[in-house]
């Protein structure tokens, strides 16, 4: 297919495996928090590529980092290392609890590494019987067979054969349920500090305190999945920084590369040492291009100005949503942290998240769902106030269109 060939939405159905149902327009360029489609129509982007485009579209610093690195090295494999990977690892360690870093290409890969490491650590330290993993219902950790088994949403694992053994699930924010399930056979408890796909629900700090204590009592690792909540999304560099606990392993992706595929698993020395030479790997993990871009993204996000700005931008959005709610009675709750926002529909509007997403697109606005009953917003951390104000006006039009 030549570059000059005209493509349309119908070509997706013709050429692609039908595991997605993309919207009926094709964006062709973006700048900041605005996108333009093939017909030149403009959209305000509050979806952020599902919490990926942390600096918006076509940020000049990211373009500069990518093109500069592209003129030097693209790929080496893990037979060698490279300067961008070592610099990024050092910067992540300096900024977090971590002492060691493993790079991958996606959140699922980072979680796969985390779960494998937890089992390997337990096997080496306590023997093969200590292999059980506890996660939360309605959690989401990726689409590999291991990560969908750990994820607490059966719809993603049904039809793919038996789930991996040694995995159980407890309700989120329910300490009694975890206490009844955890044992000395548990090697890890896996938690999203904010459940993203599960409805944008934040963990209770008292629950996290209890989870940490139970992990310590049973010699289990606490794994935080911050694929969606990390890299400034909550107003802290990572969501754990707003909690009273430290994890033993943390995974991050999405905003780490600001749109370039890269992920990381962060951990501590006493755990990391159990991934000896040859135990795990990734051909593309730590790719020089991805690491160069991610280092620049980290430089920009991990500043007081940007992190404080996330808190301010959340307030602008929440104030606008509350005003809209006062007029239309849409939402029973507006929740989340920072620029990961979930708006739960009232009972009378259950199941309307997809309809609102479609109506918003017609009004020139891109939003997300988190299940059928929650509108999710995950815009650029740098979104301008005027873009927020215009987005809220377009959302109002979308809501009016729902009832037309």
TrEMBL record:
Organism superkingdom: Bacteria
GO biological process, one term: L-arginine biosynthetic process
EC top class, as a word: transferase
Catalytic activity, EC: 2.6.1.11
Keywords: Amino-acid biosynthesis, Aminotransferase, Arginine biosynthesis, Cytoplasm, Pyridoxal phosphate, Transferase
Localization, UniProt: Cytoplasm
Alphabetical list of Pfam families matching this protein: Aminotran_3
Binding locations of pyridoxal 5'-phosphate: 107-108, 140, 225-228, 283
Repressor as UniProt keyword: no
Reactions catalysed, as given in the entry: N(2)-acetyl-L-ornithine + 2-oxoglutarate = N-acetyl-L-glutamate 5-semialdehyde + L-glutamate
Family annotation (CDD domains): OAT_like (cd00610)
Cofactor: pyridoxal 5'-phosphate
GO cellular component, as recorded: cytoplasm
Chain sites annotated for binding N(2)-acetyl-L-ornithine: 143, 282
Listed GO MF terms: identical protein binding; N2-acetyl-L-ornithine:2-oxoglutarate 5-aminotransferase activity; pyridoxal phosphate binding
Stored SUPFAM superfamilies: PLP-dependent transferases (SSF53383)
Cofactor binding remark: Binds 1 pyridoxal phosphate per subunit.
Family that this chain belongs to: Belongs to the class-III pyridoxal-phosphate-dependent aminotransferase family. ArgD subfamily.
Note: May also have succinyldiaminopimelate aminotransferase activity, thus carrying out the corresponding step in lysine biosynthesis.
PANTHER family recorded: AMINOTRANSFERASE CLASS III (PTHR11986), SUCCINYLORNITHINE TRANSAMINASE (PTHR11986:SF113)
Subunit text: Homodimer.
Protein name according to UniProt: Acetylornithine aminotransferase
Organism: Halopseudomonas yangmingensis
The organism's taxonomic lineage, starting at the top: Bacteria, Pseudomonadati, Pseudomonadota, Gammaproteobacteria, Pseudomonadales
Underlying gene: argD
């Amino acid at each position: 297919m030549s570059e000059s060939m005209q493509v349309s939405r119908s070509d997706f159905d013709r050429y692609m495996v039908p595991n997605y149902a993309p919207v009926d327009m094709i964006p062709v360029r973006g700048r900041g928090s605005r996108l333009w489609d093939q017909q030149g129509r403009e959209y305000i982007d509050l979806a952020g590529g599902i919490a990926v485009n942390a600096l918006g579209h076509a940020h000049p610093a990211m373009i500069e980092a990518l093109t500069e690195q592209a003129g030097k090295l693209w790929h080496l494999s893990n037979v060698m290392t490279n300067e961008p990977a070592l610099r990024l690892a050092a910067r992540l360690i300096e900024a977090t609890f971590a002492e060691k870093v493993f790079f991958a290409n996606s959140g699922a890969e980072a979680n796969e590494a985390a779960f494998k490491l937890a089992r390997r650590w337990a096997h080496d330290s306590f023997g093969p019987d200590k292999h059980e993993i506890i996660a939360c219902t309605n959690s989401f950790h990726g689409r590999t067979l291991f990560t969908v088994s750990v994820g607490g949403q059966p719809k993603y694992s049904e039809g793919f054969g038996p789930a991996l053994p040694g995995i159980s699930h407890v309700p989120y924010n329910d300490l009694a349920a975890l206490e009844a399930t955890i044992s000395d056979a548990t090697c890890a408890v896996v938690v999203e500090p904010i459940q993203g796909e599960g409805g944008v629900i934040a963990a209770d700090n008292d629950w996290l305190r209890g989870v940490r204590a139970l992990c310590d009592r049973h010699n289990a690792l606490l794994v935080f999945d911050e694929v969606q909540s990390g890299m400034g999304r909550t107003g802290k560099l990572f969501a754990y920084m707003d909690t009273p606990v430290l994890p033993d392993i943390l995974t991050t992706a999405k905003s780490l590369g600001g749109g370039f595929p890269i992920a990381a698993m962060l951990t501590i020395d006493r755990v990391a040492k159990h991934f000896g030479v040859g135990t795990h790997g990734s051909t593309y993990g730590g790719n020089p291009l991805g690491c160069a871009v991610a280092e620049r993204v980290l430089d920009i996000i991990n500043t007081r100005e940007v992190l404080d700005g996330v808190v301010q931008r959340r307030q602008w959005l929440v104030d606008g949503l509350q005003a809209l709610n006062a007029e239309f009675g849409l939402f029973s709750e507006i929740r989340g942290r920072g620029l990961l926002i979930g708006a739960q529909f009232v009972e009378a509007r259950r199941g309307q998240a997809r309809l609102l997403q479609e109506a918003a697109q017609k009004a020139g606005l891109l939003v997300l769902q988190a299940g059928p009953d929650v509108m999710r917003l995950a815009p650029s951390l740098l979104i301008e106030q005027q873009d927020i104000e215009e987005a809220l006006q377009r959302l109002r039009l979308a809501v009016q269109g729902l009832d037309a």
